[in-house]
Amino acid sequence: MLGPDRSVHGGISGVVNNYYEGGLDEKVKLRYIGTMVEGSKIRKLWQAVKAYLLFLLVLSGYEIVHVNVASDSSYFRKSVFIRTAHFFRKKIVIHQHGGDFTNFYEKELNEKGRRRVRQVFGMADAFLVLAPMWKEFFGGLIGEEEITVLPDAIPLAPAGHKRYGQHKLLFLGRLCREKGIRELLFCMPALGEKYPDIRLYLGGIWEDASLKEEAERYPEQVVWTGWISGEDKKKYLEDCDIFVLPTYFEGQSVAVLEAMAASCAVVASDTGGIPMMVTDGENGILVKPRDAKSLLDALDRALSDAALCERLGREARKRAEQDFSLEENMKRLLEIYESISAE
Q: pTM (2 decimals)?
């Protein structure tokens, strides 16, 4: 299996770590190779070179190559591994996670580049996407018969006690423009005036210095926690009653799943695979991407109604249990492995 190093802060690493937590490495002979690390361009290049050399060294001992890929540099890096696996006649699973692949394919590549994408992705024996909308898009490139919808999933801990009406908001993810942080910060003055006890906890790493400076204007309302994981993340998910993700685009979102499992009232963008998890008014509130007014209205609605938050949170937990359990996800993944092995 290939993807970013398991230490990288991001969604794909979270998916891979969940597979390890669920014991996938005990069900198959699994070798994970991290092709990317955080840091300088030199460090990233060196990691890619080391990963490729290790890949060549161990490839003969494995039947299936499972490639976790997104857009931009992730695609270009992984295409080398995919072509190599194809050359050595390995079975290939391409697992597409990129929430902005449409823009990358249609606007950033020329026709030659798009033709190469179709060629590389056409090498897959199984092509996995996170939501039905992606099956339609990638089906237009390589044919829908090759594509399987396999939503992300998470391990489910027993449901804990949740206090609603605390006015505690939680964001988890990269702190950048594309995640809607500017729109979220835009809402804080009005919400702070109406709800003096409001706290917005930003769990992530700043990728935009101007946004960090903007957040620092509201020291009484906005708390930057840094990147949180493990027991710290569990604590924040338990303590906060509302989870917010006003992202511009998204493949699916492990963070939303984690918030649903923690019975949070979810306010998230109506984009990518999020509507597959969150039904507006039923187990969360959907907002228009890039629309600060839509986000403000939704947060005001949640903050003003503890009973609504409780209902949304309980229904979110039910949806997580029914549709996004890690056990069922791994069962389907193993069936895919077995299916292509038998071909």
A: 0.86
